Amino acid sequence: MAWYVFALVDRVPSGPPGKGLGNRLSVRKIPGGLLVVEQRADVPPVEFGTLQKHQAVITRLAESVPAILPVRFGTLLETDEIDEALQERDGEIAEAFDFVRDRVQFTWRRKGRHEGRRRIEGTRRREGTDRSPASGTDYLRRAARLANPSPTGAFRALRSKLAPLVVAERFQPATPAAPDSLYHLVERSTAARYAMVGGALREGNPQFTMTGPFPPFAFAPEIL
User: Fold this and answer.
1) 78 φ, ψ to 5°?
2) Which end of the chain, N or C, is less surrounded by CB atoms within 10 Å?
């Protein structure tokens, strides 16, 4: 039996499960938590409307549980595949739940799509990543810097003003499809304050957009 997976949650959602993309949602027990799924025969088409519906389901779920780990769009697995993927991972799942519990995500984007790409390419040239590393330690240090890029200087003022309200931060350099993006994980209890401060900063910096609060999409590990 194939299941389309929406999210991992730490407890049974309050209220009725509702529908997924077409069928009624189900909740399955897994090591360390619960899985919210919909029985489905095939992967849904990658269309804007379907993507919106997928996100709407996760947003609704996030409002009814303390902790949620969204699963990427298009995850369709058989029962045995789910069991195999989650076997002996209850500790990892519990840790991930602890990290996002009662927290939400805000997203900042800077208009203009190529600064991040140029910056990464410049970093690679400066660090000499086109040549062989001098040692294994050298290689690992370079790999860590490229895997966890720092926000560009344009975000510096925003970060300094918002830092007291931020639990965790993730930066995604620009791609051909999206601009530089900065993700902040914020306590649900301070989300209104963050939105107020962020809104004032956005008005003074029209090159930025801010959206949220969202479920913690950017801070959920790839469990499945």
Assistant:
1) -75, 160
2) N
Q: Taking residues 33-55, report their average pLDDT.
A: 93
Pair of tokens at residue 194 = 């963050």
Tokens found for residue 165: 């309200």
Given a cut of 70, is residue 65 above it in pLDDT? yes
CB 184 within 8 A of CB 105: yes
Fold of 103-122+152-219: Alpha-Beta Plaits (3.30.70)
* pLDDT at residue 132 is higher than 60: no
Cα-based angle 148, 115, 170 (whole degrees, multiple of 5): 30
Backbone angles phi, psi at 143, to 5 degrees: -60, -40
**Residue 4 CB neighbour total at 10 angstroms:** 25
Task: Name which residue leads in pLDDT, 6 or 133.
Answer: 6
**Nearest Cα to 173, choosing from 191, 160, 155, 188?**
155
9 bridge partner residues: 34, 68
State the Cα–Cα distance between residues 7 and 57, nearest whole angstrom. 9
Q: What is the pTM of this model?
A: 0.81
Q: From the centroid of its chain, how far is CA 11?
A: 20
* SS3 call for 47: coil
